Automatic annotation (TrEMBL):
Catalyzed reactions: a peptidoglycan chain = a peptidoglycan chain with N-acetyl-1,6-anhydromuramyl-[peptide] at the reducing end + a peptidoglycan chain with N-acetylglucosamine at the non-reducing end
Record EC number: 4.2.2.29
Taxonomic source organism: Planococcus salinus
Segments crossing the lipid bilayer: 23-47
GO molecular function, one term: lytic endotransglycosylase activity
Protein name (Swiss-Prot/TrEMBL): Endolytic murein transglycosylase
Family annotation (InterPro entries): MLTG-like (IPR003770)
Amino acid sequence: MDKQSKKEVMFERMREKKQEVRVVRRIVLIVTLILLIVFGIAGYQAYNYVSGALKPVDPDSDEVVDIEIPIGSSIDSIASILEENGLIDDARVYKYYVKFNNESEFQAGNYEMTPSMTLDEITESLKTGTVYREPLFTITVPEGLTLDEIAARVIEEKTAYTAEEFMTQVTDEEYIKQLMTDYPTLLTDEILQEDIRYALEGYLYPATYPFYEEDPSLTLIIEQMIEATETTVLQYESVLQEMEKTPHWLLTFASLLEEEATSQADRATIASVFYNRLNKPMPLQTDPTVIYAMGEHRERLFNSDYEFDHPYNTYQIQGLPPGPIASAGLSSIQAVLDPNDTNYYYFLADSEGVNHFAETYEEHLANRDQYIGN
């Protein structure tokens, strides 16, 4: 083969290689474009799917779904419960959503939710233990009310039940035994002592209660208040154990502060007076126990009233009365557990409701002369 032929063969091979390179490049380009299109479509679909999963399942739904989150539930099990009940579209998406937002400390319990709730609302509800629904109505129990007062001023005015129906329910022996079974740590045999006027006195926590049905049962109303008391008191269970005291003792002591205190700040100081008297020992001599013992409200007590012979009259007995004389709020409960450190043994309130404290009886008499007179 001459030199010319060899060159032609070489050039021909070079042209063929170039052609092969161009073909390969076209194939790579086409494949790349196809992959980009496929990934683009997949990404778009994934984006739409995730976006949809982050929205409420049904924004217009009024359906109420009852769910239970067991104690110790992981985020995986919580997400599965929500998906199974139609409250979220995808458990995996919700799980990643929670982790991305660094959410934690979900509370166990029973919840009423709707498919119209956003993931933020669901998450906040699970974190706070609250139900994200507008209540149909609320009942507010003010601090310091007795069972009789709750019956007349709350139940009869805010519900379809009469005061008599309420009192019949809260004094029913079988019902009380059932409650003691349901709330054994809170409701002990102490509430059945012979001298107790009402077993549930002081056990209906003062708070505002939401209701999501038009006619809740009387037992539901009562038990919601007892549950609130249990939740409040049992958070101090370790403190009570260290003090070797019971919830009944705490609620009884706190009820005295609730009835005596004229301001938030005075509770811890009044508690110190009672502790000092109990340690002496001296009778507590607190007027609200006389009024409770007599069973009727008095604007003013007379000397003969203090001699009224009754297990609740702390002018006649040593120590605390047999049980609470009213429903105490959180401030009074905390004051019992964390009283001020004082040497006061006496106090009185002037006409403006301001309390004046004294270490000795002579100082107390001087306060009486100065702020109350004869």
